[in-house]
UniProtKB/TrEMBL annotation:
The lineage of its organism: Eukaryota, Fungi, Dikarya, Ascomycota, Pezizomycotina. CDD domains: PHP_HisPPase_Hisj_like. Keywords: Amino-acid biosynthesis, Histidine biosynthesis, Hydrolase. Residues 5-216 form the PHP domain. It comes from the Eukaryota. GO terms for molecular function: histidinol-phosphatase activity. One of its GO terms (cellular component) is cytoplasm. Its EC number is 3.1.3.15. Belongs to the PHP hydrolase family. HisK subfamily. It comes from Lachnellula occidentalis. This is Histidinol-phosphatase. GO terms for biological process: L-histidine biosynthetic process.
Length: 299
């Protein structure tokens, strides 16, 4: 059964993504998805944390979180409407910008409609690290001027996020690679950074979390999905469990590069992936064979 655990829409992430939530769901069905997670970006509580594209689209900070609440309402409507065609999971991407976001993420996740939270880090010292080269450079500068120190700060922030949130799914674990000078580098070559990588992976395993194989890295020009091979090999060696995501930002991204992601997983020796299924009020882990994901996915 094909599935994705990470997606966004233009309806609820204006300026950042495209298309309506319903059109994205219809595309997922057409591509053979049998489980599809809706995981819009969480609301921010400070103007300084909005991306330039969001500001250009007119997004502002709303203390009532009306957009987030509207998303939950629409997601529940669509889950009921398409329940016979698609198993829809409802979550959100909990972005750890600074520790003060912990209570907000925890509060939002307490809504009974929320199945799970994607734990992610997109910022280092308050600066986005995956938006563009100029903002990434600010993150490097704030880290002491070297990329290795920026990587170090990224994985320290991720560690704090893991301890505070215990997310059931960890998103794009090594996103910090995207805009660096050598984006396809092996993190194992950075000794101090690698120690933090291994520490964080152990925490994910101990907490029973899933690590997503995120095919968006491929459409953004990386040679491998997130996370890179060395990270995946270390995680697999610890007995860690993988899930699969397209991190779509509109209908054109649904299932993008899944064929290459399948090859990547096979090269790692991964035969089993994990997702969730809701049974009544209970959310259960579900094992899915990679061969079954491949067999049901439609390019």
């Amino acid at each position: 059964m094909a599935f994705s655990m990470h997606s966004h829409s233009g309806q609820f992430c204006p300026g950042h993504a495209k298309d309506s939530l319903e059109d994205i769901i219809l595309t997922a069905i057409a591509k053979g998805m049998q489980t599809f997670a809706l995981t819009e970006h969480m609301p921010r509580n400070s103007e300084e944390d909005l991306y330039p594209e969001e500001i250009a689209a007119g997004k502002t900070i709303d203390p009532t979180f009306s957009n987030h609440n509207a998303y939950i309402t629409e997601a529940l409507r669509l889950r009921a409407k398409y329940t016979s065609q698609l198993h829809i999971l409802i979550g959100f991407e909990g972005e750890w910008i600074r520790p003060s976001y912990g209570p907000l993420i925890t509060s939002l996740s307490s809504n009974p409609a929320i199945d799970f939270v994607l734990g992610s880090v997109h910022h280092v010292h308050g600066h986005p690290i995956d938006y563009d080269a100029a903002l990434y450079a600010k993150a490097v500068s704030a880290s002491g001027g070297s990329e290795e120190l920026c990587f170090d700060a990224y994985f320290e922030s991720q560690y704090a996020m893991l301890l505070a949130l215990k997310p059931r799914v960890v998103a794009h674990f090594d996103l910090i690679r995207l805009l660096c000078a050598k984006p396809n580098l092996c993190l194992r070559t950075l000794k101090g950074v690698w120690e933090k990588v291994v520490r964080n992976l152990r925490v994910v395993v101990e907490q029973g979390g899933l690590l997503e194989i995120n095919s968006a890295g491929l459409r953004k020009g990386l040679e491998e999905p997130y996370p890179g091979r060395a990270v995946c090999e270390a995680f697999r060696g610890m007995g860690g469990r993988f899930t699969l995501s397209d991190d779509s930002h509109g209908i054109e991204h649904v299932g993008t590069n899944y064929g290459r992601a399948f090859e990547y997983l096979e090269g790692l020796g991964v035969e089993e992936l994990w997702t969730f299924e809701r049974v009544g009020e209970e959310l259960r882990l579900k094992s899915v064979r990679l061969v079954d994901v491949k067999a049901t996915f439609k390019e």
